[in-house]
Amino acid sequence: NMAKHFDYCVSIARSADAQGFHFGAVIFNGSEVVSTGWCQCKSHPRQAHFMKYAKPYKQQNSWLHAEIHALVAAKRDCTNNDIVIARWAQGRLKNSFPCSACLQALSYGGIRKIWFWSEADSDWVFKYCTERN
To answer: Which of 35, 43, 69, 92 could serve as 74's disulfide partner, Cβ 3.0–4.6 Å?
Structure first.
């Protein structure tokens, strides 16, 4: 099941394009895909809310991030669901750990595990994200 989620997320990232940034996200619960998201050059109130607390990112990357797009598109409680995030650049997977605004949004949304590509590990790794603000 995980390989399918990873592959699906990479395909979303490869087709997404927000000013040259290619990110995709898939929220899932076991084998069920709950929601998908991709980076977009448009704003969203939830993105703006979490960007207020992400000082290094405040002036740039203010468009809708893939992680928050997936949360918004879920239209249901995502508590105890997992998310996989992919970034495609220069013809390969790149580090895809979420920014501080998205980390906060995922925590608030009840996401249990965040799966992301790590170039250092050359593999998918995860971080638990269980605290709710």
So the answer is: 35
Phi and psi at 92, nearest 5°, equal: -155, 170
Cβ atoms of 89 and 22 closer than 8 Å: yes
113 vs 91: CA distance, rounded Å = 26
Specify whether the CB–CB gap between 106 and 114 falls below 8 A: yes
pTM higher than 0.85? yes
Distance CA 122, CA 93 (A): 9
Kindly give, in sequence order, each residue whose CB lies less than 8 Å from that of residue 55, ignoring residues fewer than 6 positions away. Answer: none
Kindly report, residue by residue over 1-48, the tens digit of the pLDDT. 899 999 999 999 999 988 888 999 999 999 999 999 999 887 777 877
DSSP output for 65-118: -HHHHHHHHH-S--TT-EEEEEEEETTEEE--PPPHHHHHHHHHTT--EEEEEE
Contacts 24+ apart (CB under 8 A), 57-64: 57/99, 57/100, 57/101, 61/21, 61/99, 63/18, 63/19, 63/39, 64/18, 64/39, 64/40
